[in-house]
Amino acid sequence: MKLNLGIFSDLGITDFIQKNEIVLFSFGIIILLLLAIMVIVAISKSKRLKTLKRMNEVSEEANQLKNAFIANMTHEIRTPLNAIVGFTTMLAEMDDLDRETRMTFLKEINDNKDSLLQLVNDLLDYSKIEANTLEYNDVEVDVNALINELCVTQNLHTHPSGIQVEFVEQLPQCRLVVDRIRFAQVVSNLVRNALKFTESGSVKVGCRRLSNQNFYFYVADTGCGIDEEGRRAVFERFVKMNYNIKGTGLGLSITKSIVEHYGGGIGVESKKGEGSTFYFTLPAGIEYKEYGKF
Q1: Angle between helices 99-130 and 21-93 (to 10 degrees)
Q2: How far, in Å, CA of 103 to CA of 110, rounded?
């Protein structure tokens, strides 16, 4: 008599599976988990490699910017110093200079002194921002009066393009609790930046309220404009759009830090060849409303 061993074998396997169903299910889950862990580890390793690569790229980019900054600072410091020393020496050694020539030399000395002072102030402010020690002395400030004063002061300087800075839009009342010097620094930085890159046309300053009652300040120019890549980098430290134009490459970065200290935001709208509008916002909460006590 022959036995069908295949049937018994199938029955044995079926019986084994039924008796050890939980164990086999658990074993299957463990295998799936191990596979999932292997996949996660592989993905994580890939992400770490990409992150490390990106960090190296960022570090290299930062080093390049820093090296360019140091080289630029050497030039920026040397240029006004050479001018000051040169014109001072001529004034001291040349006795036959007429009054007009002397006044021209003195103006050159004064302008280069201002450039050097601005450079030193930018470096000092940047170092304080990095160390988180930049001080703010908040008081009630009549913003309309302050911006008007800044425009008048700028217009006292002779710009090669002959452009006058115009305060074209203002609120009936705009009094904020801010540091007067820092607020003036923000507006002045934006105005000076606009004048540097505008050869003809206009530079206009304005202020209005947004729908959420926050304050919106802007400086609009008809200058060379900024491309998309430049707009993304313009507020970063050490960045200069044109190394042929005087400046530290820190002014807009410092401006951004001051605005963000007060809970505001900063940005730029621009197209290459069509001018730029730099703007910043400040929260409605810093408004000084007790006008009678001002």
Answers
A1: 160
A2: 10
Backbone angles phi, psi at 270, to 5 degrees: -160, 155
Bridge partners (DSSP) listed for residue 176: 141, 287
CA–CA dist 238, 214 (Å, integer)? 30
Q: How far apart are CA 278 and CA 66, in angstroms?
A: 25
User: What domains does the chain contain, in order, with CATH numbers?
Assistant: 1-134 (1.10.287.130), 139-293 (3.30.565.10)
> What are phi and psi for residue 242, nearest 5 degrees?
-150, 110
Looking at residue 72, its pLDDT comes to: 66
Q: Tens of pLDDT along 280-290? A: 999 999 988 77
Average pLDDT of the segment spanning 270-275: 88
pLDDT tens column, 150-184 = 999 989 877 767 789 999 999 998 999 999 999 99
Rounded Cα distance, 152 and 141, in Å: 18
Q: Are 226 and 241 in contact (CB under 8 A)?
A: yes
Model confidence band, residue 147 (pLDDT cutoffs 50, 70, 90): very high
Residues 6+ apart with CB under 8 A from 233: 239
> What stretches of 131-262 show up as alpha helix (H) in DSSP?
143-156, 180-196, 228-233, 251-261
- CB burial readout 195-223, b (16+ within 10 A) else e: bbbbeeebbbbbbeeeeeebbbbbbbbbb
